[in-house]
Task: structure prediction
Amino acid sequence: EVQLVESGGGLVQPGGSLRLSCAASGFTFSSYWMSWVRQAPGKGLEWVANIQPDGSGKYYVDSVKGRFTISRDNAKSSLYLQMNSLRAEDTAMYYCAREDMHNTFDYWGQGTLVTVSS
Amino acid sequence: DVVMTQSPLSLPVSLGQPASISCRSSQSLVYSDGNTYLNWFQQRPGHSPRRLIYEVSKRDSGVPDRFSGSGSGTDFTLRISRVEAEDVGVYYCMQGTHWPRTFGQGTKVEIK
Result:
């Protein structure tokens, strides 16, 4: 059974940093693109970043470029999102999602909540 | 970026009645490989999104056959043939043809 379990969310002040983790199981992690997708409270879904199976290619939505870094450790079947220079508008539930061969997200984690506030 | 526009944004439906959600994209979603990467997700209250439909009309495993997807180019539709109580939630379309991946605003389905 495919499982994605996020952790690392919490309350952080504007300008601060946070590192999210996603532990994957039930599939060959090193064979899949992985993404982070976020959802601000009461709002819709926004793709944030993704990473190629071997970690060589990384892509970001414009609003987080230069502030967020996606990475992975295939030996640990884990995905990460380092978030720096956080802003109030980064407040959201952050989901880890697996990308399949149909250019879409077939499995999602339960999410971890990030709140940026003073 | 490709803009995905859903309508309506709110959809009250009586149990057992059909429902239909429209999704329009600002650019054609036909990819160079000939496939159209348009997806539908369901998000029940308090839950993570769940994919229902991929490539316009292909249902995911375990998705009831009362859900169906159709469309082409820039115009797509999700239909629920007979709404059940468990269908309450927000439905999102998403395109996987262009970068970045983009979602519609969401359509809230509720029981009338």
Remarks:
- The first strand of chain B starts at residue 4 and ends at 7.
- Chain B has a mean pLDDT of 97.
